[in-house]
Design brief:
This protein has a single domain, classed as Roll (Nuclear Transport Factor 2, Chain: A), CATH 3.10.450. The protein is globular. The chain is built from 4 helices and 6 strands, in the order αββααββββα. β5 and β6 form a beta hairpin. The protein starts with a helix and ends with a helix. The strands form 2 sheets. Strands 3-4-5-6 form a 4-stranded antiparallel beta sheet. A two-stranded antiparallel sheet has the order 1-2. The chain has 157 residues and is of the alpha+beta class.
């Protein structure tokens, strides 16, 4: 969710996070009520891998110009704007956020979704379902990044 604050705030010029509603529901294929098994060779990320992505995105001491590898297709906002908003959040004591990762499930080829609970000094525990893609390492999907930006923009905070 740090990615939420940094990316969303940078795009919207705000430093708070609103509850996010997924753009489309996640559909889990089932056979008689049981999830389908993963295809051979398909690996899911560990909670630690996903927390590392989110923690790196929220680190105000690292420029967003060098964080593009953490989001599918790169940072969807100017790096200087993202850096400015992330530093404002840090200066206001809104960081760091902590993350609890649950329910990691396949979300397509080389993709997984997870339920992320983020909490911070000025953020009550907030749950979001995010998608990550495996492209030479796990990263936040472009669609999840854009959903977060839209939700923060529309929050008006």
């Amino acid at each position: 969710m740090a990615a939420l604050a940094a990316i969303g705030a940078a795009a919207a010029g705000v430093t708070c996070i609103a509850s996010v509603t997924a753009v489309s529901p996640h559909v889990q294929p089932v056979v008689f009520g049981a999830p389908l098994p993963l295809a051979p060779g398909v690996d899911l990320p560990t909670p630690d891998q996903l927390v590392t992505v989110l923690n790196t995105l929220q680190d105000p001491s690292v420029s967003f110009a060098s964080k593009g590898y953490l989001i599918e297709g790169g940072i969807p906002v100017p790096a200087s704007l993202a850096d400015h908003e992330l530093q404002k959040a840090a200066d206001k004591g809104s960081l760091p956020l902590t993350f609890n990762i649950n329910n990691i499930v396949p979300a397509g080829p080389a993709a997984a979704s997870a339920s992320i609970t983020a909490a911070g000094p000025h953020l009550a525990p907030t749950i979001e379902n995010l998608t990550f893609v495996d492209q030479d390492g796990w990263k936040l999907s472009h669609d999840s990044a854009m959903t977060l930006i839209q939700s923060v923009r529309s929050s008006g905070h």
